[in-house]
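Batch job 17 of 40 flagged for manual review because the log was empty.
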Amino acid sequence: MFVSDRQKDGRVMPAAAIAASATHLVLIPSYNTGPRLVETMCAARRYWDPILIVIDGSTDGTADIARRYAERTPGVSVLVQADNRGKGAAVLAGLREAQRRGFTHVLTMDADGQHPAELIPQFMAMSNSDPRAVVLGVPRYDASAPWIRVFGHWISNRCADVATLWAGIEDALFGFRVYPVADLGCVMEETRWMRGFDFDPEAAVRLCWRGLRLVNCPAPVKYFSPEEDGVSHFRYLRDNALLTWMNVRLISELLTRIVRVASLRAKSRAEAAAS
């Protein structure tokens, strides 16, 4: 039985009727997130239709759970990758599917329950009002947030400031965002990076370089303990090494395009002053 949903004629129905969007899709990559995936799927479906779950080589049985949920729930579909390739690779697979189906934007959210599903309509509305923008969630921490993760976000944010000449990325790592599909797909296809934990910060920087507007919006984040079925695949040594290498790459690349980035920054300031 899936939680928080009503049963009708053998199908799982959302708590409230939601008009299906023809342009904006919720994309949830998942790797071995266990019971948290079920809660995330149900929560997201209460607020949006359609939803795409990308199972990234999970070995915990959640692929079958997600398939059964999709069979019972209108507006939910599942894409299963046989091998674990990383968060960015799962997002890219979802982007390709979204574009194939004609969607122009995706909202990405983690499958572990940390992101606020109730803010999906608000973020989608912001994207609808400014289709050339990237809507970036800015985490608002509570007492559950480990200090080392908060500090890690601070470091990543300062590196993103340098890489974009202080364009206004308020949080580089938080994955609750709305992206234009075509633009994100282009920057991902142009590089062999952005396939793992480096996806979120590099996506924000490269889309800024591409000239997209940034819209920052606060969003609460919740960290769950292992006793609460919390799941984290972050590995401090491996992933911090990956992020360090990413920042070195991006700042080095900035030097080759600094005139264009500076021009885009000036244009952005002028547009902000005129609005």
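Reviewer: the log was empty due to a logging misconfiguration, but the result itself is present. The domain at 6-274 is CATH 3.90.550.10 (Spore Coat Polysaccharide Biosynthesis Protein SpsA; Chain A). Unflagging and moving on to job 18.
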